[in-house]
Amino acid sequence: MKWLAVLILFVASTLASEQSGQVLFSGLPVPGVTVTATQGKTKLVNVTDLQGFYHFADLPAGVWTLTTEMTGFSPMTREVTVAPNAPAEKWEMKLLPLEQITAAIPMGTHVAAPTPPPTVTPPKESAPKEASPKEASPRQAKTEEESAGSSDGFLINGSTNNGAASPFSQFPAFGNNRSGRRGLYNGSLGIIGDDSALDARSFSLTGQDTPKPSYSRITGVATLGGPLKIPHLLKTGPVFFIGYQWTRNRSASTADGLVPTLEQRSGLGLVPTSRISPQALALLSFYPLPNFAGSTRYNYQVPLLNATNQDAMQARLNKTIGQRNQIYGRFAFQDTRSSNPSLFNFLDTSALLGLTADANWSHRFGSHVFTTMGYQFSRLSTHNTPYFENRENVSGNAGISGNNQSAINWGPPSLSFSSGITGLSDGLPASNHNQTGALSDSTLWVHGRHNIHIGGDFTRQQFNYLAQQNPRGSFSFTGAAAGSDFTDFLLGIPDTSAIAFGNADKYFRDSIYDAYVADDWRVSPELTLNLGVRWEYSSPISELYGRLVNLDIAPGFSAVAPVVANAPLGSLTGLHYPSSLVHPDKRGAEPRLGVAWRPLSGSSLLVRAGYGVYYNTSVYQNIAAQMAQQAPLSKSLSVSNSAANPLTLANGFNVSPTTTADTFAIDPNFRIGYAQTWQLSVQRDLPGSLQLVSTYLGIKGTRGMQEFLPNTSPTGAVNTCLTCPRGFVYLDSNGNSTREAGQIQLRRRLHSGITATLQYVYSKSIDDDSSLGGQGFSLTQSASGSGNGSPSSSLAPPSATSAPNAVVAQNWLDLSAERSRSNFDQRHLLNAQLQYTTGMGLAGGSLFSGWRGTLLKEWTFATLITVGSGLPETPILPSPVNGTGIIGSLRPDYTGAALYSAPSGLFLNPAAYVAPLPGQWGTAGRNTINGPAQFSLNASLGRTFRLNDRFNLDFRADSANALNHVAFTSWNTTVTNSQFGLPTSANSMRSIQTTLRLRF
Questions:
Q1: What total of structural domains would you count in the chain?
Q2: What percent of the chain is modeled with pLDDT above 70?
């Protein structure tokens, strides 16, 4: 057939979301791992970059099954709930030679035991799941759908590696479907493209018709694999694989904001021209003028065009030596360059260059004992260049003093406004070099009905940073001085200021250990047990030259004094601190139990259950970064304007006599958190090729992170302890969380070319754990006032994890008031998935004969519909916490007015909230606002064209939001903001991506 009719996709969609994660091996990033996201028969594929990260930019919201696969590693599978701003997933892979996967697979029927339930984002997976020999590689196992396809007499998508299954599809085995000696090698050439001509323009929050830039996204893929042979020199060389990806992406987005008008810039008659601060005038010059009028919420909108160029290569070698030994290794590199413009026309650039390599040896001791040893090395360098670096000393020219004005840190200080005026900011320079080395060993002993795994790993990590936390400083304006935040700005009187610089070079070091033993015990054909225990320990991070600072705190927070790692004796308590200033926590024993039971032999009824404990050993890196940027090693402060410490734009970075110079402290006896997870599922086949699965999942998180501000009080309250230290965030590990979820899934197995799945999840999650995200003050934002207003979501959310955007409690004496719905608490979620394959008859035709049969056969169409309730959000009152320079942890009073009976044009009612009375905390609870509901419908279409016995051409088209349905991500919940009750952003509009791949 010399021509191909492209079918028009019929879909509707909303709420596509980002989902990302990192794949590690013994703490090292693993590039080149195939990550597959599946909902029923909807399948998207990504490949990890050199840092081990993968990213699905527009994944439809809902429950997805993620699978990681790579030759030599045991495949891993996990269910996650994709939603706006979901937290990144962490995967810890285990090396496993292919011969170990297949050697111990018994014959006959067997009930597969589930591994323990997934952790709330486990830092590492346990051996019971990773090393089970009964888990055949997905590329080797024949799936249930393929078997059904054979019985139907149709050639179904996936049964012959149809390209519709994956944009990165590869031939399943060397020499497959080949004749003669030409079958030794396989390869492919592919191109994946997306053009602005097929995509809709970005949604405009302002309603303005902004021009749509021209752009394209294109990726070229080339692979080649087979035995490496050199005539007269190497006749039986290793099997090799090499792959290369070339990406040149240009992506458009729309930036909108509220910028000062000409009247506002002149003072509106409220500020005499002679009193306007020259520093304010200098910073105002970077603000553009409004490009449309008639709105008090937005008055400026421009299109932005981002650019990303990437080159990546992966190579693998595998050589069998004799009957008992196998050596294999990998090498990969990635070079990525990107540029990111802003609403202010600042163009920041970044560059990433890294490599990873590993070498492994596998040995078989007879037919029952296998061992694998390996070493992996990884190095990653990143360099960020902000627009003003070596270009213009903005602060110096404006007359702003007290911040870092070295050429590398040139640029404006950050500005934030409580009324909704767009804050001024630019990126920060950084030059970071991270390196990791790891040793691993694992042994499998097949003994009768037992498959026993024993192993351990050791990882040494280096994080070498040349960067400052906040070198240019930041100012926030809430109108406390003159009644208007912009008037205060013109007068040059900020409400708070924050800064952190000095000690730019940091050399963090830590070690990670783990050991495990697990038994996959096949008690009988009807019963399988998976028993195991794992121990994990990650040492608190230390700095090579002892440049970390914590606070030595007297009982009751009555006094504090800095303690430095190179002189670790507390001057107040007399305690001796370790080099990391945090005592290690080595109590990381993690029992695991999995059970699979078929009550009636020959029945389809199957019961699975599991229990596991998972510690999060990856919490220390962000903690060390904060301790490394504090006085006396650095200039650090977060202060508010007061009579004792008056602030101006010209001179706003002075230490307050009533506020500590250090802004962060951690309990030296901090203990890492853990999650207990348990699950129970019942599965049964029904008539009509149907299968019903009912699942219950419970999670209990303990020792989660909590942040609070000691010795603070409500605005207007009498300070009963004038000498008590204030102004620092204190971190301890007393948080808790719970999650319970029930799921019903009805699935139609692939039959007559049709498969479908209907799944409903009801869940409830509550916590008082600040590390689970939320809206409020962010430790990395200090006094920016913008908070972290992005909810997160995960089917199994973390209960104790690293907290780069942790939330500070409103009332440090009532932490229980923070207990409320978790940010990922999505009560209702319904997914419907459908796939239809036109198929091919046994005689090679389709349901039609002649040219119609040739045209219509073997097409696969898939669609996904997702409906879900909104995620919770928190009302924020942007006001400095009394005695500190911290904005964002306060909440307003709830008036009782109907929150969702909003005026025209808004989605939330501003009358529902009011500032609390002087001396009182706000009564509005955390996460008491329901965010936008979810609805989406996406689709894909694909086919493999068999050109001849040697060549196949895969075609695939993926459409997200094909009907251009607007899907909002969240509401603006800052009560003094002019955009309160409006959506903060919308998910991507319609996009169509096409893939062509030639396989040979």
A1: 1
A2: 81
